[in-house]
């Protein structure tokens, strides 16, 4: 996962856009970072992609969106620890994505999306240092 690219991606985007942004979600995969910026008073999201080489791609067209948002300074996760416990406890799983999302009532939530060796996808909700807070099985349409 490109966890170590999340903060540089935010810095590049906020520099390009002229300051702090509100986000619906920021996620990292093994190849890129996706940043979903809240626009139009939180009724639309504009997606940006930051690749492993440090290139911020042009934005996608805005799409309708809703839900809690957050600012980058709310992200307190430790890149070296946030996935370590889950990865060690699920050694045969494939890790697809690490996500930061806005939380109802303010703040952020952290989720790890994984695929089991049996083919099902699930999400592990973790704290900023990787402590497991809960799990949810996902259907293919939810991932």
- Overall structural class, as computed from helix and strand content, comes to mainly beta
- Please report the number of helical segments: 2
SSE succession: HEEEEEHEEEE
The total tally of domains equals 2
Estimated share of beta-strand residues: 35-45%
What does this structure look like?
The protein has 2 helices and 9 strands. It has helices spanning 6-17, 84-89, and strands at residues 22-28, 32-39, 44-51, 63-64, 70-71, 94-102, 108-115, 121-126, 132-138. The relative contact order is 0.17. The longest helix is centred in the N-terminal third of the chain and has 12 residues, at 6-17. It has 143 residues and is mainly beta. Strands 1, 2, 3, 4, 5, 6, 7, 8 and 9 form a 9-stranded antiparallel beta sheet that branches. Helices cover 13% and strands 40% of the residues. The protein folds into 2 domains: 3-71; 84-138. The protein is globular, with a radius of gyration of 15 Å. A hairpin with a 5-residue loop joins strand 7 and strand 8.
Summarize the structure.
The protein is mainly beta and 143 residues long. It has helices at residues 6-17, 84-89; strands spanning 22-28, 32-39, 44-51, 63-64, 70-71, 94-102, 108-115, 121-126, 132-138. The longest helix has 12 residues, at 6-17.
